[in-house]
Amino acid sequence: MTKITENEFEILKLGNPILRQTARELTKEEILSSEIQGLIPKMWDVMKNAGGIGLAAPQIGISIQLAVIKLESDSERYDNLENSEEFVIFNPKLEVIDEQKQGFWEGCLSVPGLRGYVERPRKLKIKYLNENAVEKEVVVEDFLATVFQHELDHLFGFLYVDRLNSTKDLVFEEELTNIASEKLLD
Ligand SMILES: [Zn+2]
Questions:
Q1: How remote is the CA of residue 104 from the centroid of ligand 1, in Å?
Q2: Distance from the CA of 52 to the center of ligand 1, in angstroms?
Q3: Which stretch of 23-27, 83-87, 116-120, 147-151 has the lowest confidence by average pLDDT?
Q4: Ligand 1 center from residue 29 Cα (angstroms)
Q5: What DSSP string runs through 108-140?
Q6: CA–CA separation, 80 and 69 (whole Å)
Q7: Is the CB of residue 126 less than 8 Å from the CB of residue 94?
Q8: Partners of residue 126 on adjacent β-strands
Q9: Which fold has domain 2-184?
Q10: Which residue out of 76, 151, 175, 182 is catalytically annotated?
Q11: pTM reported for the whole predicted model
Q12: 61 CA distance to ligand 1 centroid (A)?
């Protein structure tokens, strides 16, 4: 965890091996340490500066099971979002509640310029530790369920491109307006 003391974090991109590692869990003592408590606001800064709605620690080169998620109604990257609470998630455990798949055009700060249509289960329960190392449980559905699965995938070495049904579902952002309306009819 040598990078934690750096002020500026660079977002790693597809191809960097750190994005493919399984990140390690933290103990409650580690979560409460000054090092990790100082990292949390930096995660929010990096995420917001990049215009993201979620960020996982491996994306800034720190291979620990930490992700932050906050949906913003004024997001420049995603339309029609409702504000969510701020989630700080350590050591998540996912359980699918509703296997029925739903698809969204996902983007990723580690895969700049591209979007992919990914289908994932529509409802999940997630157990995790929050920023106070307190055990939490949340049920998420719809787009928030996709965001959780996308971000938590980062903690286990997966990117959304691994979840595509077809490489034909991978497009440049500027082409999305031409085909998004078709996909919504599915
Ligand atoms: Zn991502």
A1: 14
A2: 9
A3: 83-87
A4: 27
A5: -TTSTTEEEEEEEEEEEEEEEE-TTS-EEEEEE
A6: 17
A7: yes
A8: 94, 138
A9: Peptide Deformylase (3.90.45)
A10: 151
A11: 0.91
A12: 13
Residue with tokens 């750190």: 18
Measured CA to CA in angstroms, residue 116 lies from 98, 99, 102 at distances of 22, 20, 13
Taking alpha carbons only, the member of 34, 17, 29, 24 closest to residue 64 is: 24
Q: Per-residue confidence at 3, pLDDT binned at 50, 70, 90?
A: low
Closest CA to 76 of 96, 98, 97, 47: 47
Residue 59 to residue 49: CA distance in whole angstroms: 14
The neighbouring-strand residues paired with 137 are 127
- Cα diameter, the chain: 50
How is residue 170 written in tokens? 């991978």
| Count of C-beta atoms within a 10 Å radius of residue 152 | 22
Residue 154 to residue 78: CA distance in whole angstroms: 20
More confident residue, 185 or 69: 69
Active site residue 151: yes
User: The tokens 């409802």 sit on which residue?
Assistant: 123
